[in-house]
Amino acid sequence: MRLWIDAAVDWKLTVFGMSPVERHVQAVARLKGVSEICIDGGETMKLPEKLARKVKIVFRNSAGSASQRLDAYLKSGTEPVLAVAGDTVVDQRLFEFALAREPGFAAVDKNLAMLSLAPQASLPEAATIEALATALVQSGAVRLLPQAEFPTFIRRLRRDMPYYLLPVRSEKDRAAAEHFMFWANYKGSTDLFTRYVYPFFVWHLVRPLARWRVHPNAVSAFNILLGIAAVPAFAMREYVIGFVCAYLMSVLDSVDGKLARLTYTDTQLGVRLDHGLDLIHPPFWYLAWAWAVAAGNAGDPVMIAAVMMVIVYILDRLAVKVYTATFQRALYAHAKIDTFIRSFIARRNINLPIFLVGVILGYEREAFLLIVAWQVATLVWHTCRIGWILMFDSEPAAKAA
Asked: What is the pTM of this model?
């Protein structure tokens, strides 16, 4: 498969620090099955040198309409061609979908189009990719890709989302595209603070970090340091330092993932750093909270409660893994009730403000014991809920997967 990008358009506006043309190249360079990327009309464009090491990139400056220039490129080889406009943001999933399907279809959204063409395809005269797609669909030369045929579920985001194409032809378009893509990269089920409180801060961090080309793994590494620094601060009752580290880490925990997905810089190392930190650090925080509440007395009942909480936390995580292993998707995407419950179950972003309020009001011990009780209640809920799904309610999840 080859990719042809119509760069004889205004491609210089950027979306999260990259022009739409570079976004196409970045998205496709990560995939297997693309032998060449042709940028037609963009010889002045500068791309990161590392992209040329991943995939063959050629520049052309063909004359004529979009269909004439595409037809010339189509006939220059024997492989199928994906055709996209250089002033359009294309859902990365569409590239993956096209590489796994036979050519001969058009993905259309908001009057924008991506074309998948066989090398022997005959193209009518058309000024733009969109006009060409319309003509080909109307003539029956290619079929329209319906949203119902597209796999909309995104496992890592626990949500369904139709494929999309977004125009980037004005500042208004650029702002709308960034806003849409930012929210599209939020998980369908998450806690109240991640959904309603942190996005303001995440938005104002992701945009400059993307423009400055900061790698998300650097953010993840800094997050690890913050998570570690919070433990002794909490244990020594240096609450201001502890909560500053904890809340900054909580916000940045959303930043690194968004930054990675929006700039095509996600890596397996980054996933391990991000998810590993999410799993490992909470028990250390809880033990540090208990140590502070107990004033360093290991025999204090609150320390026993803390150890019990860590055990319950581990059991709760294992219980949720049972569902994931069985259905190959997140529990919180199973039904609306699971999405709703996810917003306030015992997790870091819920437990942290409970303890903060307890510290401020002088009820640290009571707040911590409430957190322990809430963690136990969360385990009971997950155990009962997963048991019910396995016995009586597995069909909806199986279909959705």
From this structure: 0.92
